[in-house]
Amino acid sequence: MIQDNGTNILEFILMGFSVHPRLEKLLFVIFTLVYMTTLFGNFGIIALATADPHLQTPMYFFLRHLAFLNLCYTTAVVPKMLSNLLSVKKTISYLLCMAQTYISAFMGAAECIILAVMALDRYVAVCHPLRYTIIMNHQVCVRIAAASWTLSFLVSVVPLKLSLPPLCGPYVINHIFCEVPVVLHMICSDTSLNELLMLLSGISTLMLPFILILVSYGHIIGAVIRIRTAGGRRKAFSTCSSHLTVVTIYYGTGMFMYMRPKSSYSPETDKYISVFYAVINPMLNPIIYSFRNNEVKESLIRAFVRNTLGKAL
Asked: At 172, is the secondary structure helix, strand, or coil?
């Protein structure tokens, strides 16, 4: 830890995976490949959903927002983690640490809310197919997206900014990046209020959207059951399978990390949990939506054919 004139904090020690020094170079290669795949996959989803007229639908509109926040989240975390894997001096500046804390809170809240919005979109598509294009028109989607980002900021960044007191020693972060549960351990005063606010924030950004997702899929399942043909049921539910997979992965890890008291914090276990939802999950999302979605596959084929024919001509 370095301080300026004995008062202002300039750097923290960021331990990362330093307890496994022999694995650091291997981890650097693995996480570099994961990060490159994440960038390629999410930029690809954004490009496809923007360029292909067949993907100009509400589902892919919100999928672009999901891909964008995946890019923001992983880019705030991974480059510094990769740098420290190759560095002898494993530090992180105070400003970058605070930036990671706020960005991870903001993007985590945004992902929960956007996943809930996507569940609502699937509910309208399956349960009210004839009115789907009217209910989920472009203007409505834009307003919902703007409201989602604004609400995410208000329930994550604002409470954190108002409640986070000055940090004190030891300025050693036994984690892979800075996020709220980790920063709480550098507060020397009573953290009961901070933990309560984190719990309330977790309820508003994790549980309430999760309840909306459950209600939406309850109606979807009811509508699918009422479809008489097996092919119709399979087609209706296939539009939701990718989203369900992403929700299960993200909420499973997010609830474990954020909706528990500070006393149950386990540095080594939490490192692996954080790696999953901050590094692996942003890579998996575009893969899940690509391989489990026929529309994305067809869009990729059309893009490949156009590119091949363009070169041939």
From this structure: strand
